[in-house]
Specification:
alpha+beta
Amino acid sequence: MIILIITVLLFGMQALAKTKTAEANLRENELVELIKLDPTLKFDIRYATKNNFLKRVIYKEAKAFLQKPVAEALIKVQKKVKKDDYSLLIFDGYRPWSITKLFWNEIDPSKRNFVADPKPGSIHNRGCAVDLSLFDLKKEKEVKMPSEYDTFNESAYPAYVGGTKEERDKRDYLISAMKEEGFTVHPHEWWHFDHKDCDKYRILDLQFNEITSEDMPTSGMAEQR
């Protein structure tokens, strides 16, 4: 019995040590506001409006943040798509953990594969996921995709074969452009992209007005285009 107790204690200590080591290796929070990196980006922050699946205002401010390396990768995508007369259209970036919990609690349980489980947290909570589409700069309007943003059925899947060929081609063009800069599309949402470094940051529950601007560049990548 004593040997068993000692074994259990040692196992617990080892697990705790691994957890502390993993936490120590996480990067410091560097959330930056996207518009301050590149004002040519287009924005439609749906959760700051009633035009979302909950039909009410969720965010108090219509802002989008990402961890700085993730934001810099996104700006590279913006530069590429602008050559084809498009802009990225941002729907959402960093999302406080409490909002993820709200979504989980209020969505129909049968649709929960479209929202993150708050227990492990969302990549959005780490500031490493972005929801977006394309904006046609010549036509000055959002590009039509096989589904609308936050459509909770199979038409939102990146592999969906319905819709028109043009809609699928535009969706695939976006996915390809994002993939080139280290982003992976969500299997159920063509608009949701996770960055390759997402596991290097902590789950956060900072509200937008709690995010400091100390690390935001005063002369950002917008001047480097």
